[in-house]
Specification:
Blueprint: E1 2-3, E2 12-19, E3 24-32, E4 35-44, H1 60-77, E5 85-89, H2 91-95, H3 99-110, E6 115-116, H4 119-134, E7 140-146, E8 151-157, E9 160-167, H5 171-178, H6 186-210, E10 214-217, H7 220-231, E11 239-240, H8 241-254, H9 273-287, E12 291-294, H10 299-311, H11 316-327, H12 332-353, H13 357-370, H14 382-392, H15 400-411, H16 419-423, H17 432-445, E13 456-460, E14 463-467, H18 477-492, E15 496-498
Helix pairs in contact: 1-3, 4-10, 5-9, 6-9, 7-9, 8-9, 12-13, 12-17, 13-15, 13-17, 14-15, 17-18
Length: 504
């Protein structure tokens, strides 16, 4: 990525926002000749994770801080179309029990939908941001990002991650567990390090075995450490094991957060700094790191690169769907038949059902290609097996909400049409119930695993009318019987399937 210059031509603008447990970050860029040119950045230490109580609920105060920040960010990107913005939430929003309630208000404040991503997806995006910032170098890299509530570690080469992990520890969670009253002692610091070492234990051998040539830190915490050790004279370049040991001593010598004053340490970061240093110290110890460089790029730049890929039709999600089809031995010809029919049906009803065409085409394509993945597990209840796989797999490029929607679509593509499935989705996603009706019809029409005549559909609020070419349905009694059974399934879910050719 490069810095914008006044000579750049007008181009499409993209924006990425990272709602971290400690800080919210926004980066805005233009796409010029297929490359990203950064034009604006915004960062605020919201400390959302600090507002998470023991019952894992976000406090009203933390929510207000976050909403105020999002309103300011929203003003900057208000003119951008939804497809040009991607907003991701990380650990705190993953674990908060009232996150759905907060997200409704947050999306209103920002004016954009917010995706919650898994820890593994967060790690993938962090590596993407760092790798694109460094360019196509040959060395194998260990990338570390210490957030407020989680820590991501990735080993990768070029632009591809080779192993990824997300651990439930961060600067905010470590402070709450070991330094909640603000006191800093050697004994407490070591306890914090041991807590981190316990988390690292399960990846230690795996990561050491894979190996790397260079270690890179990518978070605000690690950048702050690098700044402090440099300005304190502990290190001339990057972070070394010796400089980290001196920093640890300086923190303990302060005795308390109130008295923690270090060269280059911003006052606003001091309340979470010891927790982050404890995590970093444990990582150096566990993985036997001698020196770590620091990257200015991280999660938001990775999100921005992912967004650029979607704009340029290099969507990671398509690659993920193809990989799942291979892994679960999907009948590709059948998946393509169902997909083609579904994509013909969707545009015929989006206006009457008032549905977003592009989003439905996207979700419909994925669901059609994946609806039979459960068959590789067992034929009986395969739709349930497929739904479980989609909700619980690591799916690069997908948010947790997207995985949940896909899971529900696959679960609902046959047999009972359960209203409880739609109620389990966020309010903004519940209208995919109509997409599920179309998916069911497409699957039914290709039950014999052959092509079918073109059908036309029309929709009213909770009704789908299906019309066949003259004489076709009479010549296909099995399809007629399937449609009668399907009408009964949908009726149980308060949805009407009307087939005029079967009238009477």
């Amino acid at each position: 990525m490069t810095t914008a210059t006044s000579s750049r031509p007008a181009a499409q603008t993209l924006a990425a926002i990272d709602l971290g447990s400690n800080s919210f970050h926004m980066v805005v860029a233009r796409v010029v000749d297929g490359e990203l040119v950064i034009v604006d950045r915004m960062k605020e230490m919201v400390q959302l994770g600090a507002g998470l109580n023991d019952a894992r609920r976000l406090s009203a105060e933390a929510q207000l801080r976050a909403l105020a920040c999002l309103e300011r960010m929203g003003q900057r990107i208000r003119q951008l179309p939804q497809a040009s913005v991607r907003v991701v939430g990380t650990n705190t929003l993953r674990v908060a029990k009232n996150s759905e309630e907060f997200l409704e208000r947050a999306e209103q404040a920002l004016g954009q939908p917010i995706e919650i991503i898994s820890g593994i997806e967060e790690a993938r995006l962090i590596y993407s941001g760092v790798a694109h910032g460094l360019g196509p170098k040959d060395e194998r890299r260990l990338v570390v990002d210490i957030g407020g509530g989680s820590t991501e570690l990735v080993i990768g080469q070029h632009f591809s991650p080779l192993d990824l992990e997300s651990l439930y520890m961060g600067c905010v969670t470590m402070m709450r567990r070991h330094f909640d009253d603000g006191k800093l002692t050697a004994k407490r610091f070591r306890r914090a390090e041991v807590t981190a070492l316990q988390e690292l234990e399960r990846i230690e051998k795996r990561f050491r075995r894979l190996g790397w040539q260079i270690a890179i830190g990518a978070s605000g915490t690690i950048r702050a450490v690098a700044r402090v050790v440099r300005e304190a004279g502990f290190s001339q370049r990057g972070i070394t094991r010796a400089s980290l040991k001196k920093l640890r001593t300086a923190i303990v010598d302060a005795g308390s957060i109130e008295r923690l004053e270090l060269p280059g340490l911003a006052r606003v970061r001091a309340p979470v700094f010891p927790g982050g240093v404890a995590v970093l110290s444990a990582i150096f110890e566990s993985l036997e790191i001698d020196e770590m460089d620091v990257s200015d790029s991280a999660l938001r730049e990775g999100v921005l690169n992912d967004l650029l890929g979607r704009v340029l039709h290099r969507d990671v999600r398509s690659e993920t769907v193809n990989a799942l089809m291979e892994r679960y031995h999907v009948d590709k010809e059948q998946a393509q038949r169902v997909e083609a029919t579904l994509l013909r049906l969707i545009p015929q009803v989006v206006e009457s059902w008032r549905l977003p065409l592009q989003r439905l085409l996207e979700l419909g394509s994925w669901a059609a290609r994946l609806h039979e993945i459960g068959l590789d597990i067992a034929h009986s209840h395969y739709h349930k097996h497929g739904a479980y796989v989609l909700e619980n797999s690591d799916m690069p490029g997908f948010s947790k909400q997207e995985q949940r929607v896909l899971s529900v679509l696959v679960r609902a593509h046959r047999r009972k049409f359960l209203g409880s499935l739609w109620k389990s989705l966020p309010a903004s996603a519940r209208r995919v119930e109509h997409l599920a009706v179309l998916l069911r019809l497409a699957v039914l029409l290709h039950r014999s695993r052959t092509d079918v005549a073109d059908v036309t559909v029309a929709g009213t609020r909770r009704c789908l009318e299906v019309r066949f070419p003259a004489g076709w349905l009479e010549a296909h009694p099995l399809t007629q019987a399937d449609l009668q059974e399907e009408a009964a399934f949908l009726a149980a879910g308060s949805f009407e399937l009307r087939v005029p050719a079967m009238a009477g």
